[in-house]
């Protein structure tokens, strides 16, 4: 009998209870997403070129990194703690080669603070040619 009484009190006025729960979840989601921000910084990029070929196009010297997360935290991040690199050292023939931008940072620190990093652009293309004799 007591179970029935508790069950009835739980179901009493259930549309208002469900609506209140939905409203509370919407308010929570709004607060979470309103404090999310993005910051773009330009950092130097380390490029490893092949030994037997020379770059026929421009070699990038910096890359833009987008830092997304809580606005209170992302502006505390020192851009010098992020290292970007491109590795073209395995290129062995002339032509256009593509390599991804690799970002190195303290993953545990960034993941625990729910901060995401991404490079823009994510890939670089460089034209390689044989070295011209003088």
Question: Short summary of the structure?
Answer:
It is built from four helices and eight strands; from the N terminus they run H-H-E-E-E-H-E-E-E-H-E-E. The protein has 134 residues and is α+β, with helices and mostly antiparallel strands. The protein has two domains: 34 residues; 95 residues, RNA Polymerase Alpha Subunit, Chain A, domain 2 (Beta Complex), CATH 2.170.120.30.
List keywords for this structure.
2 domains, alpha+beta, five-stranded mixed beta sheet, three-stranded antiparallel beta sheet, RNA Polymerase Alpha Subunit, Chain A, domain 2
Describe the structure.
The protein has 134 residues and is of the alpha+beta class. It has two domains: 1-34; 36-130, RNA Polymerase Alpha Subunit, Chain A, domain 2 (Beta Complex). It is built from four helices and eight strands; from the N terminus they run ααβββαβββαββ. It has helices spanning 2-11, 14-34, 71-74, 107-112, and strands spanning 36-48, 53-55, 62-70, 83-87, 95-100, 102-104, 116-120, 123-130. The strands form two sheets. The protein has a five-stranded mixed β-sheet. A three-stranded antiparallel β-sheet has the order 2-8-5, with no helix packed on it. The N and C termini lie far apart (99 Å).
């Amino acid at each position: 009998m007591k179970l029935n009484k508790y069950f009835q009190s739980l179901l009493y006025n259930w549309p208002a209870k469900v609506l209140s729960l939905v409203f509370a979840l919407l308010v929570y989601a709004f607060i979470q997403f309103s404090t999310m921000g993005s910051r773009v910084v330009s950092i130097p990029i380390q490029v490893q070129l092949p030994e037997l070929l020379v770059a026929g196009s421009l070699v990038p010297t910096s890359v833009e990194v987008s830092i997304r997360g809580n606005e209170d935290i992302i502006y505390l991040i020192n851009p010098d703690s992020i290292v970007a690199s491109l590795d073209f050292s395995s290129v062995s023939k002339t032509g256009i080669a593509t390599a991804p931008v690799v970002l190195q940072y303290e993953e545990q620190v960034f993941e625990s603070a729910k901060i995401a990093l991404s490079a823009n652009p994510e890939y670089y293309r460089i034209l390689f040619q044989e070295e011209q004799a003088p």
